[in-house]
């Protein structure tokens, strides 16, 4: 469902607005809002492009999108339940102007679910305002351990073909030499461009790709941890667990428990 078909967020004369919907379909065209936006994935998973980076929102994770940031969705699971909340922001609070993707703690989860009672309410409500004011005031503390789980979209066109190959074959053992052969660039030049465009080495980028894909698979609930590990290219569950823990700061078993 496209939110803009029925309600224009910018025209609402209230500091907060709540929108919950089953089978939500967020805009897949780049757009911005004057308000900040909290996107919570209750079930399923969602990819969101914000400010030139693609972020994964697994189940029970949320993203804070600052006002004025261009964003859109890329893809999502077939069954997804998103909860969207908009809020006026304070220009003097640095958090309001930073993108954050984070695991939603139990207290915030309950607060978000409680706020569903005001979904699509376009009129002013004092109880709604006080409750959501408290929620958003606490939001910076809820995201203190936010993830940096994203992949950058390269602007250098010379990376288009090797990046496409990498995204299709991330589960294979890929060397930087393989990509340099594809794009006909010297190894040194490709390494320099790759690091400049993505902010990381090829091995780190491939690790992030694998973990993002594993989170997508774990969120679907169709595969075991062992099956997921081999599916994304790890040769053992132990290697997958170590890699997963280094990126997510939690074990795959902990993640599965929190999403079921």
Automatic annotation (TrEMBL):
| Keyword field | DNA-binding, Transcription, Transcription regulation
* InterPro entries xref list: AraC-bd (IPR003313), Homeodomain-like_sf (IPR009057), HTH_AraC (IPR018060), HTH_AraC-typ_CS (IPR018062), RmlC-like_jellyroll (IPR014710), RmlC_Cupin_sf (IPR011051)
User: Which Gene3D superfamilies does the record match to this protein?
Assistant: Homeodomain-like, Jelly Rolls
Residues spanning the signal sequence? none
Stored SUPFAM superfamilies: Homeodomain-like (SSF46689), RmlC-like cupins (SSF51182)
Q: Write one Gene Ontology MF term.
A: sequence-specific DNA binding
Q: Does the keyword DNA damage apply?
A: no
HTH araC/xylS-type domain ranges (all copies): 160-258
Please identify the protein, giving its name as recorded.
Transcriptional regulator, AraC family
Give the species this sequence originates from. Answer: Chryseobacterium shigense
């Amino acid at each position: 469902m496209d939110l803009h078909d029925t309600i224009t967020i910018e025209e609402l004369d209230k500091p907060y607005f709540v929108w919950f919907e089953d089978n939500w379909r967020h805009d897949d065209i780049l757009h911005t809002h004057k308000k900040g936006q909290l996107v919570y994935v209750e079930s399923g998973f969602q990819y969101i492009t914000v400010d030139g980076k693609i972020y994964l929102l697994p189940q029970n994770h949320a993203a804070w999108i600052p006002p004025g940031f261009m964003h859109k969705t890329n893809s999502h699971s077939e069954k997804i339940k998103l909860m969207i909340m908009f809020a006026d922001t304070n220009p003097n609070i640095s958090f309001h102007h930073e993108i954050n993707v984070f695991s939603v703690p139990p207290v915030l989860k309950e607060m978000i679910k409680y706020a569903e009672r005001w979904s699509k309410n376009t009129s002013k409500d004092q109880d709604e305002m006080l409750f959501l004011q408290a929620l958003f005031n606490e939001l910076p503390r809820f995201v203190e351990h936010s993830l940096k789980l994203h992949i950058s979209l390269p602007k250098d066109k010379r990376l288009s073909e090797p990046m496409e190959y990498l995204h299709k074959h991330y589960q294979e053992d890929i060397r930087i030499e393989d990509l340099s052969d594809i794009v006909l660039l010297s190894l040194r030049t490709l390494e320099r461009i790759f690091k400049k465009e993505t902010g990381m080495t090829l091995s780190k980028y491939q690790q992030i790709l694998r973990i993002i894909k594993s989170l997508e698979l774990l969120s679907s609930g169709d595969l075991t941890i062992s099956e997921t590990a081999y599916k994304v290219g790890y040769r053992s569950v132990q290697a997958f667990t170590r890699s997963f823990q280094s990126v997510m700061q939690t074990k795959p078993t902990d993640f599965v428990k929190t999403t079921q």
